[in-house]
Amino acid sequence: MTSPSKTKKTDTNTNSKKNTPLIVTKSGKIPFSTGYLAESLLVLGITLKEAYKYAEKISRKLKTLDQPEIKSSTLMELIIREFQESKHPYAIRAEFLRNDLKLLRPLVVLLSGVTGIGKSTISLLISQRFKIESLLGSDFVREVFRSAINPRLMPTIHFSSYEVGDHLGLSISRRLNRHIIGFEEQARKVMVGIEATIDYVISQRDTILIEGVHGIPYLLKEEYVSSEHVVPILLTLEDEELHYNRLKKRERLNPNRKGTHVKYFDRIRSIQAYLIERCKDEGFPVVDLKDEYDAVTQITEEIWKRKLSSLS
Q1: Selection from 204, 227, 206 nearest residue 217 by Cα
Q2: How many CB atoms lie within 10 A of CB 202?
Q3: Residue 180: pLDDT above 90?
Q4: How far is C-alpha 11 from the chain's CA centre?
Q5: What is the pTM of this model?
Q6: d(Cα 144, Cα 149) in Å, to the nearest integer?
């Protein structure tokens, strides 16, 4: 015989399922989730607390409709109307939620920074948040060049970014800066491939996130710097100890690079210091990766600022 407590629990679950409408999407039907909606609203740049507040409001409105199934487009209109009626400062951003953020296209997010600071992790989070379909590492662009171009013709692309300076024929008077000069020289070469990728993505009205050491904002041509479709950001990790520990962890995961990053740690840090100074001097956004949540929030804000710049 079933106990009263278990019967009550079963009834509660049944009632809960009955009150939860199915959202009809192109991929199929999924149960509405307040938590999932709140997470989706973070793309607007609002806080997690605020996202849950709006998600709960929408949940209550869906229950008053008392419909077993609701189209995803109807759900989006409810969300947009909620932001408009509450006169939220990000109401205009909410309008971009229509058609799965397709109104943001074309979009190229360029996240650059030195080795071992956590670029790949942040890049994945941003691509998921903005539903960016392609993710490209600048090392892949360099590898294509390496496979196609003889080292004698372009030696700078055949070494690690922090080792290039050792292979440049520079005078003794410039020796102290040779690792920075070598880094920039390699980045300039790879930037040719990056800019070609940007051109293609924009022409196709597509989305891509390009991350790596080579996409330095101040090396971009002016046409990309001023474009509302391209968002160049320098990522950094100013906490030296945390940076060192992340490099050590990276080496543990890749035995083939064991000891290499740590050996050149001072070089990597000096290159970062130089990049921070240059980017700040030239007005490019610089985002520190010590706190993952803060970093994603800042990058989200920079993307919206750039995309909405043409409307202001």
Answers
A1: 227
A2: 18
A3: no
A4: 44
A5: 0.83
A6: 9
